[in-house]
Amino acid sequence: MADADENLPILRLEHSTSEIAGCQHAACKKKAAKIAKGELRIGKYQYYEPGDKWITMWRHWRCAPTPQIKLLKQLADEVPENVAGFEDISPESQEQVRLAFENDKIADNDFTDIRPDLIKSSRGGRSNNVTGYRVDTAPSGRAGCRNPACKDAGVKIGKGELRLGLVTDFQGHESLVWKHWKCATLEEIAACKELLEQDSFDGLNLLPEEYKSIVLESIESGQALEPPVLEDLVKAVKPRKSRAKKAKKEDGTDDDELAGTPSLDLTGDAHPTQAESKENPKAKAKRGRKRKGEEDADESVNEVVAPQKKQGHIVKEATEEADPTEARIAALANIMRTKTAQSSEKRS
């Protein structure tokens, strides 16, 4: 059997720190009734055999049975002020305890006295409307920490870090907000302890052993301890790759400089560039100022579009008796050859 914590009283009173704990009274247990946050409750520290541990089991104050009231009275030497937690509850709740001592039973079976303002103080702020808690390791580094200091500084929870999830109720819908485990408040650690005692602390058994040990040690000490850094879980920052510069050709020209240069087929005829092809699949002959020696030949061509020739096709030379159309094609072919030869001379 596990050893009990001698520092914890057998019976104690408090205003519930959350609405997670269920009431152990038979009727409430059957309905799975929870104890409202801030409501007066009585806790009994006892051995829990299925988990082989000592835990605190809670009831609504109004659900406390007569034997429990008599035991409370006996432990306090019949002095209400000696009851553990008596000084922290509201004056109205204190009066109900005195009446119970006088009658050896609960005086008002409808008494609730919900007082969230009397919940034990905590460090670092408290989240409202929390209905549950869970622990896990952050799968990414996108979630922000809800601790006020981290939130104001825009601090994120890094990938692989131990974090505490707060299940909240927002307009009737459940949502999760997150905190670094080390940023959990005393109240939140106390709520996690209640869940652990009920074997309903979600995510605990899925943690790496190092994180699980920290969570259990934190719950035992009553405050969040800083977890170790697990290198294999923490996100490694990958350096950004710089864009590769365009490789230049051996002759010092790059692809952009050659983009406008027409290519040749086996006949020596020029093909249109890629840009010209997109503009017009039947590539147009270049316009512009004509070079000397080309003016006379070009007058009869009138910028006629040359059809693309198949590989190995031989162009007939123009004669005076030849067809006018064939003459124009031959003239255009000569011009294209001249331009290609001049371009080759410039590059060499």
TrEMBL record:
<protein>
    <recommendedName>
        <fullName>PARP-type domain-containing protein</fullName>
    </recommendedName>
</protein>
<keyword id="KW-0862">Zinc</keyword>
<feature type="region of interest" description="Disordered">
    <location>
        <begin position="240"/>
        <end position="326"/>
    </location>
</feature>
<dbReference type="GO" id="GO:0003677">
    <property type="term" value="F:DNA binding"/>
</dbReference>
<keyword id="KW-0863">Zinc-finger</keyword>
<dbReference type="GO" id="GO:0008270">
    <property type="term" value="F:zinc ion binding"/>
</dbReference>
<dbReference type="GO" id="GO:0005634">
    <property type="term" value="C:nucleus"/>
</dbReference>
<keyword id="KW-0539">Nucleus</keyword>
<dbReference type="InterPro" id="IPR001510">
    <property type="entry name" value="Znf_PARP"/>
</dbReference>
<dbReference type="InterPro" id="IPR036957">
    <property type="entry name" value="Znf_PARP_sf"/>
</dbReference>
<feature type="domain" description="PARP-type">
    <location>
        <begin position="16"/>
        <end position="105"/>
    </location>
</feature>
<keyword id="KW-0479">Metal-binding</keyword>
<dbReference type="Pfam" id="PF00645">
    <property type="entry name" value="zf-PARP"/>
</dbReference>
